[in-house]
Amino acid sequence: MSLEIQNLHVRIEEREILHGVDLKVDKDQIHALMGPNGSGKSTLANTIMGNPNYEVTEGKILFNGEDLTEADPDERARAGLFLAFQYPATIPGVSVANFLRMAMNARREEPIKVKEFGKILGENVDLLKIDRAFTKRYLNEGFSGGEKKRAEILQMAMLKPEVAILDETDSGLDIDALRIVSEGVNSLRGPEMGALIITHYRRILDYVKPDFVHIMLDGRVVREGGAELAEELEEKGYDFIREEVAANAG
User: Fold this and answer.
1) Which of 44, 64, 102, 240 could form a disulfide with 236 if both were Cys (CB 3.0 to 4.6 A apart)?
2) Tens digits of per-residue pLDDT, 121-159?
3) What is the reported pTM?
């Protein structure tokens, strides 16, 4: 059970952003994708989830063996993919609880019963140490950065995706908000969920230890390794990767 990216080429208008990306995330693994601004990380996340602004010109996106390259975003979500956005949308007039119930129903044949939903919601707010009153507030309206992330992690816990993609979800977070995200991911990680954490910085990886680290530069994954690769990157910066790539190209 896995998400597999094969030789993915993606462009926006006439400009190619991804130049043949290969990546595989199994359901029981945590992967980190790191790279500087403009390297193509968010383009990859948006393409995986089916953002129509990104055109796949070559390659495939497979999920559990099924080709989702041309699938609509809702089909991908129903299949078990989840994307935590860098800038989550605000939905005035819709409470966190009602939004979660609608999201769960979108993946079910029959609407979830109120009592069953309440039980699952209660279990997850307890797991994530969230005040139950939080779920009555309108989604992201007036939320702090940490509260927005808390809402996304709660959504992830309720939907139980097979693979979750966290697109720079640590960007701009203070240490408390970062801890909320990290504790949420750690409490949900295990044999039933894999995750791809897309980030500039190592700091979230101090809290969520990845099984694999991938480095992206100029629309390509140029280096892969274990958690120690993130430490090396923190120490040396991206220039040593660029030098390696240039040396190999020469």
Assistant:
1) 240
2) 999 998 888 888 999 999 989 888 778 888 888 999 999
3) 0.89
